Structures are given as structure tokens and as C-alpha cells.
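re: that chain from earlier
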Amino acid sequence: MTASASRLRTLRDHIRWAVSRYHAEQLFFGHGTDNAWDDARQLVLGALHLPWELADGYLDCRLEDDEREHLQALLRRRIEERVPTAYLLGQAWFCGLPFIVDERVLIPRSPIAQLIERRFEPWLPGEPARILDLCTGSGCIGIACAYEFLEAEVVLADLSFDALEVANRNIEHHGLEERVYAVQGDGFDALPGQRFDLIVSNPPYVDAEDFADMPAEYGHEPALGLACGNDGLDLVRCILAEAADHLTEQGVLIVEVGNSQVHVEAQYPEVDFTWLDFPEGGHGVFLLAARQCREHQALFRERLASRTGD
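^ sequence. v structure.
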């Protein structure tokens, strides 16, 4: 922080100063906020354990010296090192729920949250008994599903032991140990013979070109959770090839592929994917019914084999 920062006294002072510096240093906002003001407010209030809904009148409260030192240290890291705010606070919000996060997992930001809040209507034929959150990371998607479907058993699966340590902390934090559990494995490897009424996945899907162009903030996230081959679909191809074996008769598969939607459509022109709409913003999430997964399984396996050289 510069010498001028030492003259910052109130919450409002710090938020205003941070917004100015964020713009001057051209920070990127894409990890829970989309503008400098919200990002600065989140960091300043969160660092001091104050609620986001804090009345504006309290913004003029003066800070103690130790509070200012702590806050300014975090602001320095946000500005100079481009560390996303959620990592600095150790917490992110998803579906209105708090989740523990650190640099072992991606920061929750999927538009799938909008589907969860609508209970996946009108896509689910009935109340799901078993749900799989594949490539779970922090566990946010599966845990949020557990809040919406109170009788469902939810499985969180991921290749990364580090990510699953965070997911298990979130299971405990939300007191869901009786219905939610985590398994380690590559794709469906840890789930032989298991079937689910709903499989939701936000796998790594960033293609090589997009990955090379990502802002510096993304460099703090695990590359394993972002990049996945030249077209971003290395893992998506595996999911499509095996999904039919893990869905119940009326099950549903939902997968986020973001900008790699163009690669999905180019590689599988024969498949009638349902691309979901998001009123609050978001794109690149497809849905397939179990029937479609079975119908196209041979094609999915053929395309997977052609890419892996089998």
C-alpha cells in the first residue's frame, strides 16, 4: 500500500480507495463479482467479518489500527498479486450458501446455481433419490443440491485428493455427513455399478487458446480444474461415453462446458443436446436424458476412442 493508504480510516475510505486502485491496475472480476465496487465491498466487509447487507451508515465507522493493517495487507495482495477475493477471505458464496475455499479448488461461480435454485425444473421427472456431483471441487454443487432435495443421497467425486479435502470440510461445515460423502477417482472410476437420478458436472473444459489468454487472477486456481486438452473436452468425452452406465432409467445428465460449447456442437452434430437458458446470465450448459445417453453411447465411445488412439 502507498503512504496515502495510511490515511484511510473508515470502511468507506477503504472501499473507495480500493475501487480506484482496482480500475487503475485493471484488475479482473470474474470470481463471484463482475465489477470493482462489489469486489472491494466484499473484501473490505468480509475481512472484518461484517455482513454484505451492512447498512450504509456503518460504512463511516473508523477502524482500529490492527483492523486497518489486516485489511490493507489483503488489499495489497488483491492488487499486487491479483489474488481473487474469495481466496483472500477463505470463503465463497454459491446458491446463497457459504463455502470454504482455498487455492486447491476453483472458486464457485457456475450458472448451474440457477438450475439448483429452481430444483432443475422442468427437467427432472421426479424427486431424485441419488445425485452425483462429478468433478466436485469444493463440493458446492452437490451440497447445494442436498439443501434442495432433502431426502437425496449425494456423492461428490473428484480426481484431486486436495480438492476432496476441501469438499469434506464443506460437508462437515454444513452438517451433511449423513447424506453427502466424497469419493476419489478419475471420472466414474470410483463408482462402479452405481447409478444416479441426476448427474451434474462442472468439469475442466477450458480449451488451450482460452487457457493461454486467461487473466492473471485465474493463475491462482488449480490448472487441473480449468484446462482439459486442446479443445477442452478431454474429460467431457469420457463423461459422455460412460454416463449411460451410471444413470437410472429416467436419469438426467447436466454438464457445463462454457465457451467449449462450440467444440461440443462441432464434434457431435448428430446429438440433440438441450442447451439450457440462464435468465441471470451464463451459457454453455447442456442436458441429456438417460435415453439419449444410451442411444448415442456407441457414438460417444467411438469419438472418445478416436481421440485417445484406442
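The domain at 104-308 is CATH 3.40.50.150 (Rossmann fold).
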